[in-house]
Structure prediction request, 219 residues.
Amino acid sequence: MPTEILALSWTVQVALASGYAAYIIAYRGIRSHHSAQDTLFSVLVFSLIASTTLWWLRTNSPFVAGLSAFLCCIATASLYRSAGAPLLSWCLRKAKISWADDTPSAWARLQENRSVRVSQIAVWLNDGSKLICEDVAKFDGLPYAPFILGTNGDVLMYVSHTHPKDGDPKAQPTTLVEGAGARVTYIPASQIARVTIRHEAEISPRPPAAETPAASSKA
Prediction:
């Protein structure tokens, strides 16, 4: 870090530090494709919020003003990530401007999506076998539940069943053992051929198709 930054006023240091913390939260997991310029200007945008807060609280003590500026930045970044970014994408689609949402990859979107509840995960290996967690709810509350998707494509999961390429699925009763704990499995990206994830969803039944005259004549 350049020593010149430490020579700046405390208000500038607070604004920059708050802006960077906000940037980390707003783009957590989806900033690997950002250039140095993207990072710099994103930090400066969030820093404006901190600077505005510091100006409004200029008559307060530095501690109160600095802490408030930092918390305002964090709150703004959290709100942007949870609601602002999806709303912006929706508005751009409705206005027929763009369907893009700046997600670097589908894998990155799968990593950061926590708005749905996952029910199952299966990982196909290069040798044709498969590792399955049939009910991830059984592992709720454990350190790596329901699973971890690494940025380089590796997976960390609790395996309840294994399925050989030529054979039947086999239960793994020792994955979760009372007294001994839970056994998590690390799968390197180089060994993974495919990943499928099932999530809970309410699927309304389709109405029966209307019978056409042609169809009724063939019956």
Observations:
- The two ends are 79 Å apart (CA to CA).
- Helices lie at 3-6, 10-26, 36-56, 62-94, 106-112, 213-218.
- The longest helix spans residues 62-94.
